[in-house]
From TrEMBL:
InterPro entries: ARM-type_fold. Signal peptide: none annotated. It comes from the Eukaryota. This is MI domain-containing protein. Residues 16-33 have a biased composition (Low complexity). Residues 1-33 are annotated as: Disordered.
Length: 253
């Protein structure tokens, strides 16, 4: 008789080879701010002039990327570009129309899907820097605080990028130009108009209920924006706010 064939012995199971996990891709860190203030001003001016020559938002976003790659402080770049937008010369566009297109460039830069050259925190910090220099801008262009209040500050306060309280505290913290004076923008009687412009835009973009909520969160009193050398009565502040359709501002006058 033939011997019965034995069943084949099963091969011992071997653990599957371990797979190496790909290292996490961290966002590229922004380079240290090494670009001088003078060079940053020149690049900001060039960006604005090139925008009005080409009318190309992508090209302007690329210019912001170049500033970042060159070691420019992006909060400072935001402030310098906004300033350059107001000061650009030789345009067939009135001063009232110069800021909105540049703000659109900021929006596009923040919306870049990979490695955006601007982040919301850059705009928020840039807003504080800009608030600190509003009085200097107002000396050259009296409408500057109101224009920036509407097209830049109001827009970003309404969208939650910029905190109103940070902005107001920044402008109030600027050293007085005179020993017994207030913050320069207050002494120029421009601080109230600035805040009225900001909040009018917030109300327009986000509605009165949201504007009132943001004003309450900012913990600002209208009286702090009026010169201490010529105090304004609460009733007068309320009348000014009411005339702007911003009566809710007077709740904390």
């Amino acid at each position: 008789a033939l011997a019965r064939a034995l069943p084949a012995r099963p091969e011992p199971s071997r653990p599957a080879p371990a797979t190496k996990e790909a290292p996490a891709q961290l966002p590229r860190a922004a380079p240290a701010a090494t670009l001088s203030k003078d060079k940053l001003e020149l690049k900001a001016k060039s960006l604005v002039e090139e925008y009005w020559t080409m009318r190309s938002v992508p090209e302007s976003v690329a210019s912001l990327s170049d500033i970042r790659s060159a070691g420019g402080s992006m909060p400072a770049a935001v402030a310098e570009v906004a300033t350059a937008a107001l000061n650009v010369r030789g345009l067939d566009v009135g001063v009232d129309g110069r800021l909105p297109p540049i703000v659109s460039v900021f929006d596009a830069a923040m919306a870049e899907p990979t490695d955006p050259p601007l982040r919301p925190s850059d705009v928020a910090e840039g807003a504080v820097l800009l608030a600190q220099s509003l009085h200097a801008l107002a000396e050259e262009l009296p409408k500057a605080p109101a224009l920036l209040g509407d097209a830049f500050f109001g827009r970003y306060v309404a969208s939650g990028v910029v905190a109103l309280g940070d902005v107001v505290r920044a402008l109030l913290a600027v050293e007085p130009l005179e020993e017994e004076g207030d913050a320069p923008l207050v002494d120029m009687d421009a601080a109230l108009d600035f805040v009225f412009a900001v909040m009018a835009r917030v109300k327009s973009d986000a509605g009165e209920a949201k504007a009132s909520e943001l004003w309450s969160q900012a913990d600002v009193k209208l009286s702090s924006l009026a010169s201490s050398l010529s105090p304004v009565e609460p009733a007068e502040l309320k009348a000014q706010a009411d005339a702007k359709g911003l009566g809710f501002l007077a709740a904390s006058a």
